[in-house]
Design brief:
Among the domains are: 108 residues, Alpha-Beta Complex (Flavocytochrome C3, Chain A, domain 1); 96 residues, Fumarate reductase/succinate dehydrogenase flavoprotein-like, C-terminal domain (Methane Monooxygenase Hydroxylase, Chain G, domain 1, Up-down Bundle), CATH 1.20.58.100. With 533 residues, the chain is of the alpha/beta class.
Length: 533
């Protein structure tokens, strides 16, 4: 067990964490911890792109309007304007760092996705996230002030109660984190003058998800245990079009919304284009509308999936603009998207709630900043507009870096208090991993069945009762065993699942991504408030 101090500790290596690290590295020593390898993040899997006003016919007002409409009355307009206005400069900043986006005729090639009234999606073919991650990691390698710790799983934030158990009130400030080294199998104590939490999402709470295996809600769970306020976790965006696989293992393969933007259409088993009767924008309606429509088709007609048909589109364009999807479907799934429709189904994709944040990336705990999917900034409201996620991450990483520079300047010469090293006395190596696997499967099954696209009071009550029991069992197991990656992730999954259900039970209306059969309409008064816990 060792203690190694940093000026800044960054938890997470997606676009938010890496952008922030590059911005603050001139002001102190930065340690970035990531629980898998450096490129394993939701950013890396983002196919579509980054929404920003970069074209001649587009405008800031149009992007603001589209975002507010998608957010179903719950967006903070000041945050929306901040993010949309800062967007173009942040795209250019990424290009300065080496990100190369698709061009046409010497200008950026701008795509269009659901909910957008204009072509404004900056992309690199159908692997934008991979390209951004590559450029940021290359820049990071060249910076002497930044250390990247791979296979390092954050366990808990260090707060006042760790420094002095008699402190009242507790948990007003963050002093670093305890981090488990997966290779050395030991816990590092990392004191820091400030922490950025940029740990990503929680898609693995559901059985069907497009998220990577690391998306187990660790950041929200850690922040909750530390006493931070959490908001709007009932709003999980289900991506309408993930590849349907009968015997799928691991994450679902995402079929980017940009394919619908290019002209792909959704069909049921009768060959009917059902979105024509659902919304004026048809397949380019916002994701909540399209996902609900697909769910209704499946339940009405007893379907396992619907079809995304692109066979009427130009094959050369499809191969050029969507090479990853084309080759993956062809080589790994024996599907030729040029000649046959793609079987698709909604899957948990992006959380719109998270750790409550202000416009400068502050959480409700001093010296704990948040950015990226883990944060609830007010941008997305009740439903995320497509490709606003990477935009939000890079803008709020910049907002957080401004605050970090102020904090580091104001606290120059400040000595950190003595932080106790991790204490695992009284624990032992428990080998009952079958119990962990069973609990993970049960949590994911409960969330899939009871807290999916369509909910009800009865379903949420049943989920809450069973999750309460599972959480107690997991906490008991946690207290008695040595740290392992499996128990860390199970603990996070159990806790965030309960928080999601708690938020969902508070929202007695159907708004955006939260649809309940008991309250099918909007509550015009209470409905425009965040569910803060």
């Amino acid at each position: 067990m060792k203690a190694e101090a940093a000026d800044v500790l960054v938890i997470g290596s997606g676009i938010a964490g890496l952008t922030f690290a590059l911005e603050v590295a001139e002001h102190g020593r930065v340690i970035v911890v990531t629980k898998k390898d450096r490129a394993e993040s939701a950013t890396n899997y983002a196919q579509g792109g980054i929404a920003a006003v970069m074209g001649g016919e587009d405008s800031i007002e149009a992007h603001v309007r589209d975002t507010l409409e998608a957010g179903a009355g719950l967006c903070r307009e000041d945050i929306v304007r901040l993010v949309v206005t800062e967007g173009p400069a942040k795209i250019r900043r990424l290009m300065d760092w080496g990100a190369e986006f698709s061009e046409e005729g010497g200008n950026l090639s701008l795509g269009r996705e659901g909910g957008h009234s204009q072509h404004r999606i900056v992309h690199r073919e159908d692997r934008t996230g991979f390209e951004v991650e590559r450029a940021l990691l290359e820049s990071l390698k060249r910076h002497p002030q930044v250390e990247l710790w791979e296979n390092a799983h954050a366990i808990d934030l260090i707060t006042d109660r760790h420094i002095n158990e008699n402190t009242r009130p507790r948990n007003k400030r963050c002093y670093g984190a305890y981090v488990y080294d997966l290779e050395l199998r030991q816990v590092h104590t990392i004191p820091a003058r400030l922490v950025l939490l940029a740990s990503g999402g929680m898609g693995m709470v559901w059985k069907n998800t497009t998220n990577p295996q690391i998306a187990t809600g660790d950041g929200v769970a850690m922040a909750w245990r530390a006493g931070a306020r959490i908001a709007n976790l009932e709003f999980m965006q289900f991506h309408p079009t993930a590849l349907y696989e009968q015997d799928r293992k691991g994450r679902a393969f995402l079929i980017t919304e940009a394919l619908r933007g290019a002209g792909g259409i959704l069909l049921n088993d009768r060959g009917e284009r059902f979105m024509e009767a659902v919304h004026p924008r048809k397949e380019l309606a916002s994701r909540d509308i399209v996902a609900r429509a697909i769910d209704m088709q499946r339940k009405t007609h007893g379907l396992e999936h619907v079809w995304l048909d692109c066979t009427h589109l130009d094959p050369d364009t499809l191969r050029k603009e969507f090479p990853t999807i084309y080759t993956t479907l062809r080589d790994e799934h024996n599907i030729n998207m040029l000649r046959e429709p793609i079987p698709v189904v909604p899957a948990a994709h992006y959380q719109c709630g998270g750790v409550l944040s202000d416009d400068q990336a502050h959480s409700t705990i001093d010296r704990l900043l948040v950015a990226g999917e883990v944060a609830c900034t007010g941008l997305h409201g009740a439903n995320r507009l497509a490709s606003n996620s990477l935009l939000e991450a890079v803008v709020f990483a910049a907002q957080a870096s401004k605050e970090a520079k102020k904090i580091l300047t104001d606290s120059a010469g400040e000595e950190l208090p003595d932080v106790p090293v991790w204490n695992d006395s009284g624990t032992y190596d428990h080998e009952e991993y079958v119990l962990i696997r069973h609990d993970v499967d049960e949590i994911q099954g409960l969330m899939e069945d009871y807290v999916g696209i369509i909910r009800s009071d009865l379903r949420l009550q049943r989920a809450a009762r069973r999750l309460a029991t599972i959480t107690v069992e997991v906490e008991d197991y946690w207290r008695r065993t040595l740290v392992t990656p499996e128990i860390l992730e199970l603990r996070s999954l159990a806790q965030v699942a309960r928080l999601i259900v708690r938020c969902a039970r508070q929202r007695r209306e159907s708004r955006g991504l939260h649809t309940t059969t008991d309250y099918p309409g909007l509550d015009p008064i209470l409905g425009t408030r965040d569910t803060v816990i």
